[in-house]
Amino acid sequence: MSTDWPTVPWLALDRDGDGVIGGGHELFGNATAMAAGSHAEHGFAALAELDSDRDGKITADDARFGELVLWSDLDDDRIGVMSELRPLRETQLVSIDLAFARRHDCDDRGNCGYERAAFEYRDGAGKLAIGEVVDLHLQCR
């Protein structure tokens, strides 16, 4: 079985503390185990568990913000090793909004973005800018 693999970074959390992102359970999606024992309906539900101040956003004010990383799979081996992980606190990210919208967009290979929300970051000039974060469902073949 093969899976398309994006080139944009994944938001991840080293849940087992082994220093690598070793599977989908360490990303934010429907493979994420929730505190109650069930699996998340989607990535934003999984991410919402980290919103410790309950303001509807993931920010540096949340207790586990410092554990979040961006994973760029530079060697396409589907394992996030230390050299591929960038702590979120080292980026210009300001917030990820947990109020998502559903919009179903698929590419020609069947990879689909479903839930999406805004994120705020500081651009190269230090000005506040807005981007979009998408819960992406990859096509398996």
The largest sheet, given as strand count, sense and whether it forms a barrel, is: 5 strands, antiparallel
Assembly status: single chain
So how many helices? 1
- Can you write the helix and strand succession as a string? EHEEEEEEE
Gross morphology is globular
Q: Total strand count, please?
A: 8
Mean pLDDT: 88
> Cα distance, first to last residue?
5 Å
Tally the structural domains: 1
Rounded to the nearest angstrom, the radius of gyration is: 15 Å
Helix content: under 10%
Ranges with pLDDT <50 over ≥5 residues?
Answer: none
Q: What portion of the residues fall into strands of 2 or more residues?
A: 25-35%
Helix/strand-derived category reads: mainly beta
Description:
With 141 residues, the protein is mostly beta strands. Strands 2, 5, 6, 7 and 8 form a five-stranded antiparallel beta sheet that branches. The mean pLDDT is 88. The radius of gyration is 15 Å and the shape is globular. The N and C termini lie close together (5 Å). The chain has one domain (10-137). The chain is 4% helix and 32% strand. The longest helix has 6 residues, at 43-48.
